[in-house]
Each structure stands twice: as structure tokens, then as C-alpha cells.
Design goal:
By secondary structure, the protein is of the alpha/beta class. It folds into two domains: 207 residues, P-loop containing nucleotide triphosphate hydrolases (Rossmann fold), CATH 3.40.50; 162 residues, Rossmann fold. Helix content is 38%, strand content 17%. The chain has 16 helices and 14 strands. A seven-stranded parallel sheet has the order 3-4-2-5-6-1-7. A seven-stranded parallel sheet has the order 10-11-9-12-13-8-14, with helices on both faces. The chain is globular and about 70 Å long.
Length: 378
């Protein structure tokens, strides 16, 4: 579907053209008309399907048609995300789409790991606030932001945002929001938590679920290796060298393990950096920028960071360790096979994890060939 059919402001159409947006993706085609009408929405679509523009365009269209009001600390739009990296990524989309509009629209991302004082000053006059829950609560408690005038709430990566890890923070934040508002929830997976949300957060929501087409599923080549824990490091290095891999995203279960894996790779002449929650924000962004540009061969990440890594043509994902949740597995492998580019997702499995992997694949409705690495020499 063409973006022309959405009757957006002419300046937004001009921005879409200059940015190379040609045809709306399925989630955009179905979500944008609903959101332009002011309805609540629960949108389920795979990672990399264009969910951010699905909510950014209706929001910008609403703001550009409203006269600029008095500057204050009361943002009209609030976007909640689970990680700093995703906050920055969403902010970049808003800034790109809001260039050259008839009136300036100020968007800003706030997150922890950096000084709060500059954020407290810069938040004045913000129209669109993108935030991680913890830092937003810090700002609210310091009276640096007033959430009582929020007209539209977006919860991105909703499956992550509404789990136990964020539950208390989300409950506190929702108490500060007006009851009358438009709610938009987007996620790559539909869990029991999300399916029951219309009773709590959404008012007669439109539910849109985009099923992956068979050809899109086939873009990701899933394969695996049975391997003992002590042989995972040598196998990883062997595969990277044997297949001449570039831009390899490796997933581990913890920050400590990510550091160890990256350290071993570097000692063996393979350039790698680790990225996880205990790294400084500047260090995380520096590593991510190097990886995106192709300057860095291997990025070793935890699931916490995975949702802020968005690369259109990422060729390789390797699960060094299996995640506990099938949803995290979906998010991991969904980092490759994007934007109609083929990708390879390789998973290391110990014999003890065989049943867990079968559960994951059954929920994904996928099959995986697994090679016994004992037959390989490396």
C-alpha cells in the first residue's frame, strides 16, 4: 500500500519520499488508519517490520496539525521502551520523520546510565518523550516532568515492558497518566499478558496481528550444533573463520559471559566487543555504532540489549547460549533476515538442552537441522 492513501500532512509525505520510504509494510498499512482515527491498538508484528513508523507517523500528523502551544514540562506524547538503545533508535525515527515540518516538533529520549541534569534541563518544551521507565520515574519524582497532560501513550516491545521486571515501575507510571488517552501497544510476540490487556490498559482496542509470510520465514536459515560448554568457544571461532563471517551478533545469557566470550575472541585475533547493561551508555553506543558501520566484526550481546539493535541486512546471529524464553529466541533470530535480506541464525545446544530447544521450535512452528560438533575438527 502506498503512503499516499493515508492522507498524511504533505510535509510528512515529502519526508517519507526523501527518506526512501516507498510502500507501507503490512503493520503500517493496517495500523496507521486505525491510529489516525484515535483508536486504541494492540499491534503484533515481527521484529524489523516497521512498527516504529506505524505509531510515529500518526503521532506526528496529529501534532503538525495543532498550533504550537506554550512551552512547558508536559509532553503530549509518551513512548515507553525497555532499553536505552531502543530509546535512541525510536528518537532517531521521530527526528527523521519530523524534519522540515511547518512547525518544529521536539522529541527527546531519556534513559539511565548518563547524568540526569542535562535531561532535566532539555525536557522543557518537549512534545514527544521517549523514555525507559526507571529514568522517567526519576525525572517525575524530581518534578522535571509532568505526565498529567499525556494524550497518547505508546508502549513499544510491550511483551518485555509488562513482565515482572518492569511491573512495579509501570504500575507507578500509569498512576501519573490521565485516564483519558489513546493507547498504542506494539510487540513482536503475543503472550497471555498482552492478550488480556484490553481489560487493564486498552479501551475497545483494535488488535492487529501480522503473520509472517512463508517467504519471510525462509529468509532466516536456522541451524544448530550439539556442543559441550567447554567447546563452545573453539566452535564459535572455527565458524567465524571457516565461513568468513562479518557482522556476527552473538547472544549470551549474562553480561559476565558476554565479556568472557568477547575477550577470548580478541585474544584469538577476532575483533569483538561486548554490550550489556553494566556497560556505560557511551561505551554501548560506541560499540553499536562500530558494529552497524561494519568496522567491528563481532558484537556479543545479552537479551537486555537485543531490542535496541536494528540493522537491516545483518547476516549472522549466533546463540552462544539458549535463552530461557521462546520469545527471546524469536527476538534474537529476528535480528537477521530483515528488509528482504537473507540471514543465518546458528544455535549452540548442549545435550541437556535438547528438550528446551524442541519447545522453542514448536512454538515457532519451525524445524532446525542440528549437527553434532564432535564430528568436526577445530
Amino acid at each position: 500500500m502506498s503512503f499516499d492513501s493515508f492522507h498524511l500532512h504533505p510535509a510528512l509525505h515529502a519526508n517519507l519520499t526523501s527518506l526512501g520510504y516507498k510502500q507501507a509494510t503490512p503493520i503500517q498499512s493496517q495500523s496507521i488508519p486505525v491510529l489516525l482515527k484515535g483508536k486504541d491498538l494492540l499491534g503484533i508484528a515481527k521484529t524489523g517490520s516497521g512498527k516504529t513508523a506505524s505509531f510515529a507517523l500518526p503521532i506526528l500528523n496529529q501534532l503538525v496539525n495543532i498550533r504550537e502551544g506554550e512551552k512547558n514540562r508536559q509532553p503530549k506524547i509518551l513512548v515507553l521502551v525497555p532499553t536505552r538503545e531502543l530509546a535512541v533508535q525510536v528518537e532517531e525515527v521521530f527526528k527523521a520523520l519530523s524534519g522540515n515540518l511547518p512547525r518544529p516538533i521536539k522529541s527527546m529520549a531519556v534513559y539511565g546510565g548518563v547524568s540526569i541534569n542535562p535531561q532535566m534541563k532539555a525536557i522543557y518544551g518537549v512534545d514527544i518523550l521517549i523514555a525507559t521507565p526507571g529514568r522517567l520515574l526519576d525525572l517525575q519524582r524530581s518534578n522535571a516532568v509532568d505526565l498529567s497532560k499525556v494524550e497518547r501513550l505508546v508502549i513499544d516491545e510491550a511483551d518485555k515492558m509488562l513482565n515482572l521486571g518492569f511491573q512495579k515501575e509501570m504500575e507507578e507510571l500509569l498512576q501519573h497518566l490521565p485516564k483519558q488517552r489513546q493507547n498504542m501497544l506494539f510487540s513482536a510476540t503475543l503472550s497471555e499478558q498482552l492478550s488480556g490487556l484490553n481489560k487493564i490498559l486498552l479501551s475497545n482496542p483494535v488488535v492487529i496481528k501480522i503473520e509472517e509470510k512463508e517467504e519471510e520465514v525462509k529468509l532466516i536459515n536456522l541451524s544448530g550444533y550439539f556442543v559441550s560448554n567447554e567447546r563452545k568457544g573453539p566452535l564459535l571461532r572455527h565458524l567465524i573463520r571457516e565461513k568468513n563471517m562479518t557482522q556476527v551478533l552473538v547472544f549470551t545469557s549474562s553480561g559476565v559471559k558476554a565479556d568472557k566470550v568477547a575477550g577470548k575472541l580478541n585474544k584469538n585475533g577476532i575483533q569483538a566487543l561486548a554490550i550489556h547493561g553494566k556497560k556505560s551508555q557511551s561505551g554501548r553506543m560506541r560499540a553499536l555504532d562500530k558494529f552497524k558501520s561494519g568496522e567491528l566484526q563481532v558484537l556479543v550481546s545479552t537479551d537486555l540489549i537485543s531490542r535496541g539493535i536494528d540493522i537491516d541486512a545483518l547476516p549472522y546471529v549466533i546463540n552462544y547460549e539458549l535463552p530461557r524464553s521462546p520469545k527471546d529466541f524469536v527476538h534474537r533470530v529476528g535480528r537477521t533476515g530483515r528488509a528482504e535480506s537473507k540471514g543465518v541464525a546458528i544455535t549452540f545446544v548442549t545435550r541437556e538442552e535438547t528438550h528446551h530447544l524442541k519447545v522453542i521450535l514448536k512454538k515457532m512452528k519451525r524445524y532446525m537441522d542440528i549437527v553434532d560438533s564432535e564430528s568436526l575438527e577445530f
